[in-house]
Write a structure and sequence with these properties.
It catalyses: (9Z)-octadecenoyl-[ACP] + H2O = (9Z)-octadecenoate + holo-[ACP] + H(+). GO terms for molecular function: fatty acyl-[ACP] hydrolase activity. Belongs to the thioesterase family. It is globular and about 50 Å long. The protein is of the alpha/beta class. The protein has 9 helices and 7 strands.
């Protein structure tokens, strides 16, 4: 029964459009707030046969539309860890997260390390502050409960990246606002204090950012691993990664990092 539950959990939570059973490594992708799996799942076709791409689907969207949103970070992380665990134990894996997805990927990586001694071969974070940074604190004080739809919409628009056509459809707009509100609520339940002595990770971390985006505290990621840190700014705003030329840079760079990890 447990195996069938894990399989069903896998089917609803993870999208893998380009299955590569013989891949050396899996890249697990975590989308941004309000986001679904489609863009990052498509990355599968840009990678060589040595990398299989999984895109994680959070509750409350796409085929999980009828499920309640996650109520807090711990619940979401526990669900993701329990579904992915078997797959992460069987071969090396790397994480990529953008914005909200970066924080989720970090929290999942932390959970895997603390409970199972598992660690990604590389952590790729994009458009996100280091979670223990002072710069992360304003996110925790966005007044989501009191914010009306127009405020949330204005916030979405400052991020850019949401196609204008989607915003013309009332139902889609309503659901996007609801999803963003719930994702931000989850993010506000996340708190991470860097341990004084114990550095959480030993893997390399690469941080990407859009050159026109509000700057993120990338330097502080240095304090979270004993591995190497690389920082890259790519042309564009918060959703720079949707530009085809940036997508090509990202997928080539990620491939090189994974192949150099000596798997």
């Amino acid at each position: 029964v447990l195996l069938s539950w894990v399989f069903l959990g896998m089917e609803k939570m993870v999208v893998c459009l380009y299955k590569r059973p013989d891949a050396l490594c899996r890249l697990i992708c975590f989308p941004w707030a309000g986001g679904g799996t489609s863009q990052l799942a498509q990355w599968g076709k840009l990678f060589s046969r040595s990398i299989e791409v999984f895109s994680v689907r959070f509750p409350g969207r796409e085929s999980r539309l009828m499920e309640p949103f996650a109520k807090d970070m711990t619940t979401l992380v526990n669900e993701i860890t329990s579904v992915l665990l078997k797959h992460l134990e069987e071969k090396p894996f790397a994480f990529f997260g953008h914005s909200f997805g970066s924080y989720i990927s970090f929290a999942v990586a932390l959970d895997l390390k603390e409970k199972y001694g598992l660690e990604p071969v590389h952590l790729f974070v994009s458009g996100a502050h280091a979670p223990h940074s002072e710069a992360f604190l304003p996110i925790k004080s966005i007044p989501i409960r009191d914010a009306d739809d127009e405020d949330i919409l204005a916030y979405i628009e400052t991020l850019g990246g949401t196609p204008f056509a989607l915003m013309q459809n009332e139902d889609i707009k309503k659901h996007l606002i609801l999803t963003l509100r719930e994702d931000l609520r989850v993010l506000q339940t996340f708190s991470f204090e860097k341990p004084e002595k114990n550095i959480p990770f030993s893997c390399d971390i690469t941080c990407f950012d859009g050159s026109e985006d509000k700057p993120h505290d990338l330097e502080a990621w240095h304090e979270l691993t004993s591995g190497d840190i690389s920082l890259y700014k790519l042309p564009g705003g918060h959703f720079y990664l949707l530009e085809p030329s940036n997508e090509i840079f990202l997928t080539k760079h990620i491939t090189r990092c994974i192949e150099n990890a000596g798997l």
